[in-house]
Amino acid sequence: MLLLNCPYCNLSCEETEFQAGGQAHLKRQSVGSSDQEFESYLFARKNPKGVHFERWQHVNGCGKWFHIARSTVTLEIFGSYSAQTLSPPKQIRVNINKKLPEWRWESSK
Amino acid sequence: MKRYSSFAIVREAFRNHSGWKKAWESPIPKKKYDVVIVGAGGHGLATAYYLGKNHGITNVAVLEKGWLGGGNTGRNTTIIRSNYLQDPSAAIYEKSRSLYENLSQDLNYNLMFSPRGVMMLAQTEHEVRGYKRTAMANALQGVPTEYISPEKVKELCPIINISGPRYPVLGALWQARGGTARHDAVAWGYARKCSDMGMHILQQKEVTSIISKNGRIGGVATTGGDILCDKLCIVVAGHSGALAEMGGFRLPLESVALQALVSEPIKPVMDVVVMANTVHGYMSQSDKGEMVIGGGADGYNNYTQRGSFHHIEETVRSLVETFPMISRLKMLRQWGGIVDMTGDRSPIISKTPLENCFINCGWGTGGFKAIPGSGWATAEMVASGEAGPLASPFSLNRFKEGRFIDESVAAGVAH
Questions:
Q1: B48-51 long-range contacts, Cβ below 8 Å, gap at least 24?
Q2: Which residues contact A78 (CB under 8 A, 6 or more apart)?
Q3: Is B300 on the interface with A (CB under 8 A)?
Q4: Least confident segment among A41-55, B95-109, B137-151, B188-202
């Protein structure tokens, strides 16, 4: 059971209150995008064995979407943050680097 | 290789079982092979076997980072069926199911294939319509299935409560020639035959990088040294994404944990496989008497081979409603496997952007039943360089072309 922190409610709640929404920080494609870009946006996923940035919704709570950074190997959560951002905030990156000094942020292509 | 037979059992009984040989060899790796297959699970070993049997290619190595059949091949709930909605799925799963019928004889290894019948319960109006449609589609595809009434369900499986308070059983899709097989034996049987054909099964050799030159495959670097090859086939299920990254391409996959559990052994109570997709649970009884229960997959990316506790709770809760007599059973073991899910819940059997590098992945929650057919189709593709009729609809390009094989609605979570 994961314990997630909703940044809007500022509450630590059990996983069953939330719903996972897949990889975060995808660049939305629209009219004028190529087939390649659409394929990448709709289907290609990083699926890392390590740090994963993902969207969650506090579905049985405030209903808002937010982002978390989580290890897919240890299930450790490095922090949650607002979804209104293009990249993880500095504090999250620092938290990750405390555990994984080698890790660097790479934006989604 | 010495043949297994009832005569051999009698012979060995008279000499203290001293004559049994190793089922497969652990050879010293060669520098170079014609074909290297990464992943010695069911699909990888089946690919190797059909490369040798159907195409005469035996200079093959199968690499495995752990032990043979220790991934999802040894972790599934062993259900075999082919009642899929879409034509390409029905074709490959039915090929697979029909190969299972004679596979024990073919491999000279008892796979305990038991075509006891698989029923998929319809517990909502939506499912009733869906399964009636699937039964019609199956009739056109030549896959024998039928839509049966709740009374027939009760007759085939008396322990089902068909008038459940929340989800009464309204009918079921019944495939009489579906069933189960012994999952470990599938891997072991293929491995024994591959080894007999002179192929090398190299366990505890983890691939650390892929060697390529000018967009063409050269070999792999492993924890046991570099191994060169003309053709590479990646068959690693949940870890496909990691291998693809080494090859410099991305896959439309997400890895999640799917879990299963078994109860303490009890006397025979059900002789069919029952799947209840609305409530995300499926159950059969093993030959040892354990109730084998499969549940839902986690909703988030995960490599832990465990699965969330609340999913067990949900699965068991819903199964107790459908099978009230299991409410007092103790559960013995629980485990998880990492399954690779594609967007349309259909597998990928395809060439990759790297020349002479092939991939077989994306079987998600339903790979075990597909092992022989998938191996057959993948071997055909690796041998000829082009996907054959069974494999071609499952190419990677379908995501770019929007040519999906949408089984997410037809099959739901439980495969």
A1: B48/B190, B48/B194, B48/B199, B48/B375, B48/B379, B49/B107, B49/B190, B49/B193, B49/B194, B49/B197, B49/B375, B49/B379, B50/B375, B50/B376, B50/B378, B50/B379, B50/B380, B51/B379, B51/B382, B51/B383
A2: A51, A68, A69, A70, A71, A92, A95, A96, A99
A3: yes
A4: A41-55
Report pTM: 0.94
Q: Identify from A18, A45, A53 which residue to disrupt to test chain B contact, counting B C-beta atoms within 10 A and taking the largest count.
A: A45
Alpha-carbon distances, residue B225 vs B33, B205, B221, B229 (angstroms): 14, 9, 6, 13
Structure tokens at B270: 């059900």
Residues 12-41 of A with CB under 8 A from B: 15-16, 19-20, 22-23, 35-36, 39-40
Residue B177 has pLDDT above 80, yes or no: yes
pLDDT higher than 50, residue B413: no
ipTM of the complex: 0.90
B302 touches chain A (CB under 8 A): yes
Nearest CA in chain B to A1: B308
Amino acid, single-letter form, for residue B211: I
Average pLDDT, chain A: 92
User: Quick one: A3-99 is in which CATH superfamily?
Assistant: Folate-binding superfamily (3.30.2270.10)
Average pLDDT over residues B145-153: 97
Domains, chain B: 29-78+183-252+344-410 (3.50.50.60), 118-177+255-342 (3.30.9.10)
Q: What is the rounded average pLDDT for all residues in chain B?
A: 93
Q: Is A49 on the interface with B (CB under 8 A)?
A: yes
